[in-house]
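2024-03-11 09:14:02 INFO worker-7 job=invfold-0412 stage=load source=structure_tokens
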């Protein structure tokens, strides 16, 4: 309780952290709802050709004719879902950073420019979109709010805690619980308010509570793991933010990056954010939880590994050492 009270007074003196947290959460949720509404209407395909007779039609895509190939960043930003490049003699090249199913659909559209209009098989629902946008912001908040544990290490306050009557596990768990509350409560409250105003949210509130709790715990466990290695607040924040941003983007939080690069696919395969998104998308599409146990289990195992390592490492550094 003393640790929770101490953290409360420290956070009270830095109210702007909490304001940033709420602002980031609101922006991510409203962005997810907005972009989902936009993407539900039609996908967008760029057609690079100088032949005016080259025409594609689809109920699921809008086609924009261009004179030159797109810069790759426009695909990454989601302005276009793909690019069809005419090479001459009836040959076309397809470029997309989305998954293999989208590529196959574009290949069929090239074969049947007027008659093939399939739905996207892996189109995300609104719930997956919201949590996909939230992943980056939630994980960044977890890294940000764990500064209190790092400060305890920098100021040697953790050494006084180590000889206090409170158990070391209770001390670490108090940091975990306090950070969880700071991240979870604002995010869930905003989701509940939007649900109350009748926004289409994809999941029920209790489902959001469980999925959001899993994401918060995963982020906090990673943050503790990083701090147990670095021990300096600013350095841990900088490294953690960089790792979270890069891995979350690669995992497909905003767009899928599966495009045939075997090395990249292997890297993406081990990212817990990827399994978390797969679990969320499967749940929203109606699959049974038992069918997605591998993805859920992987997230839980990573969570436990990070947390257990952190507790053991910090305890060895500050409790069991004999210097």
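2024-03-11 09:14:09 INFO worker-7 stage=emit residues=323
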């Amino acid at each position: 309780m003393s640790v929770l009270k101490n953290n409360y007074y420290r956070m009270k003196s830095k109210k702007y952290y909490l304001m940033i947290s709420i602002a980031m959460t609101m922006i991510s949720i409203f962005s997810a709802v907005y972009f989902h509404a936009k993407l539900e209407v039609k996908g967008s395909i760029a057609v690079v050709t100088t032949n005016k007779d080259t025409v594609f039609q689809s109920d699921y895509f809008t086609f924009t004719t261009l004179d030159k190939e797109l810069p790759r960043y426009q695909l990454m930003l989601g302005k276009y879902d793909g690019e069809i490049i005419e090479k001459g003699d009836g040959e076309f090249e397809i470029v997309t950073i989305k998954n293999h199913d989208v590529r196959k659909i574009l290949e069929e559209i090239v074969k049947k420019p007027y008659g093939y209009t399939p739905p996207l098989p892996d189109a995300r629902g609104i719930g997956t979109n919201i949590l996909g946008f939230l992943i980056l912001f939630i994980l960044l908040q977890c890294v940000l709010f764990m500064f209190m544990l790092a400060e305890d290490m920098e100021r040697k306050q953790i050494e006084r805690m180590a000889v206090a009557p409170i158990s070391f596990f209770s001390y670490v768990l108090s940091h975990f619980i306090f950070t969880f509350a700071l991240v979870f409560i604002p995010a869930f409250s905003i989701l509940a308010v939007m649900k109350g105003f009748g926004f289409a949210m994809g999941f029920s509130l209790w489902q959001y509570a469980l999925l959001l709790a899993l994401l918060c715990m995963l982020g906090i466990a990673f943050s503790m793991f990083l701090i147990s290695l670095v021990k300096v607040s600013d350095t841990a924040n900088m490294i953690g933010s960089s790792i979270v941003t890069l891995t979350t983007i690669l995992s497909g939080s905003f767009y899928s990056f599966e495009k045939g690069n075997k090395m990249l696919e292997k890297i993406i395969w081990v990212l817990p954010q990827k399994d978390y998104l797969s679990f969320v998308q499967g749940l929203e599409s109606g699959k049974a939880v038992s069918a997605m146990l591998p993805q859920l289990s992987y997230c839980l195992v990573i969570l436990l590994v990070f947390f257990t390592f952190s507790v053991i490492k910090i305890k060895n550094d500050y409790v069991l050492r004999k210097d």
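2024-03-11 09:14:09 INFO worker-7 stage=report msg="The two ends are 29 Å apart (CA to CA)."
2024-03-11 09:14:10 INFO worker-7 job finished
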